[in-house]
Design a protein that fits this description.
Elements: H1 3-136, H2 146-155
């Protein structure tokens, strides 16, 4: 065998093998590699988007928590203010009720004092009439001297 012919045959076979691989084997392998490359790139991009969205969500959560704390502080301040108002209203109502009770008690005391004075005037008038009767040694007629007794009551 001739070495040149063998070399040419092997070269032709090799060329045919390279053409066959380039035509039928290489494109599916390259396509699979490209698909895998794209899948990995999409996965990395999704991971980056997820990381970014997580950061945004954490930031929004922090802002929301801050807003909620501020609102809670405002609500607490309003509740404390309202509690103070309720206490003040209760104090004012109690003071007003106490003032009304004092006025009513003073009026009742004044009425009792007036009744006691009237009763005392009547008793004093009766004592005066009795004393005058003893002094004069005769009976004083209360009906006959009603005007005089009324004048004595008013002077007392």
């Amino acid at each position: 065998m001739n070495i040149n012919m063998t070399l040419i045959g092997q070269s032709i076979t090799f060329a045919f093998f390279v053409w066959f691989c380039m035509k039928f084997v290489w494109p599916p392998i390259v396509g699979a590699l490209e698909a895998r490359k794209k899948q990995i790139a999409d996965g990395l991009a999704a991971a980056d988007r997820g990381k970014h969205e997580l950061e945004l969500a954490a930031k929004r959560a922090s802002e929301t928590l801050h807003d909620v704390k501020i609102k809670a502080a405002e609500i607490i301040a309003q509740a404390e203010k309202r509690a103070g108002q309720i206490v003040d209203e209760a104090k004012n109502a109690a003071k007003g009720e106490g003032d009304r009770m004092i006025i009513a008690a003073k009026a009742e005391i004044e009425q009792e004092t007036h009744r006691a004075r009237e009763a005392l005037r009547g008793e004093v008038a009766a004592l005066v009439v009795a004393g005058a009767g003893r002094v004069l040694r005769r009976e004083v007629d209360a009906k006959a001297h009603a005007d005089l007794l009324e004048a004595i009551k008013n002077e007392l």
